[in-house]
Write a structure and sequence with these properties.
Helix content is about 90%, strand content about 0%. By secondary structure, it is mainly alpha-helical. The C terminus is likely disordered.
Length: about 230
Amino acid sequence: MTNSDQTPSQTPSGSDRDGAEPLLDEVIDPIGRITRAIWWLVLLRGILAVVFGIIALLAPVTALYAVVFVFAAYAIVDGIVGIVHAFRVRDRDHRWGWLLASGIIAVIAGAVAFVFPGIAGVFYATFVLAIIAIYAVMTGISGFPAAASMTDGGRKALGYVVSVLSIVLGVVLAIVLLVNPVIAVFNLIWVVGIWAVVIGITLIVAAISARAAAARSGSGAAPAQG
């Protein structure tokens, strides 16, 4: 067999290359293709996040009430579902009493949050901050053995510094919670507001980039089809 006989079988034709490129696009960039298809949904999420962040920064009380009302609605719906589920399985599940009790507690918690949104917001936010403070202290304490096990001097020093800062953060947060929980709650809302604005701007930029990429791919595909 000569080299000329081997050439057609070894060299892909133009139609084969055209068929392989879309297949490679599907394998290599599936997430990018999906993002370009729903860029408007990403843009909407970004706008909503920015709006919520601005409300949290300018009107933290309103943002706190909004979070409480969303939680209250979720708790009531979840509690009703749990109660219905408990009655449906009471003949074949001996734990249905616990399901019923948890559903009733969820409904009561949601109703209390609707009636007393301010108290509920401060309580829930204080609970979250207490968890953060405990987590920061425990992370800092556990970081000392990890830092001591490092052989590199620079990384060991950095590990000690991070551990100390984590403990200090947890202790300061706990003190603020004990002295004035309202201030701590509002600080948490402002932090969440800043985070929401940053995330929202990121989503908006990603949506605009995806829209531009979709426009470029569409304009590039039209001449090839013609």
